[in-house]
């Protein structure tokens, strides 16, 4: 099973990567930009594997650039407390 197929696994995966980036000193601006780039890549290249990803893909498809940045930042906040520490 791919990490993309299960929402909780996906959040934990992202949380692990976020924690690693923060521990290595990556600043919030860089994290925000990476989240946007990942969201854009997923929206263009990856078919949603669950309901939550479908909702995000649908929102991304109609969002302005500023709104896409907001969605990316919200995803960062969502996974901040996920993952193994």
Mean pLDDT score:
88
The proportion of residues forming helix, as a percent range, comes to over 70%
Largest sheet: none
Q: What global shape is seen?
A: globular
The CATH class, by name, is Mainly Alpha
Task: Tell me the span between the first and last alpha carbons.
Answer: 23 Å
User: Measured on Cα atoms, how large is the radius of gyration?
Assistant: 12 Å
The CATH architecture designation is Orthogonal Bundle
Tally of distinct domains:
1
What fold name stands as the CATH topology?
Cytochrome Bc1 Complex, Chain D, domain 2
Report the total helices.
4
- Global structural class: mainly alpha
Provide key terms for this protein:
73% helix; 85 residues; Uncharacterised_YmfJ; Cytochrome Bc1 Complex, Chain D, domain 2; 0% strand
Give a quick rundown of the structure.
The protein has 85 residues and is mostly helical. The chain has helices at 7-23, 28-45, 51-62, 65-79. The protein has one domain: Protein of unknown function DUF3243 (Cytochrome Bc1 Complex, Chain D, domain 2).
């Amino acid at each position: 099973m791919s990490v993309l197929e299960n929402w909780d696994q996906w959040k934990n995966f992202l949380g692990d990567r976020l924690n690693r980036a923060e521990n290595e000193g990556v600043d919030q601006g860089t994290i925000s930009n990476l989240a946007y780039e990942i969201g854009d890549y997923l929206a263009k290249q990856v078919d949603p594997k669950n309901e939550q990803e479908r909702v995000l893909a649908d929102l991304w498809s109609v969002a302005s650039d500023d709104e896409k940045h907001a969605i990316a930042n919200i995803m960062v906040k969502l996974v901040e407390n996920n993952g193994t520490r």
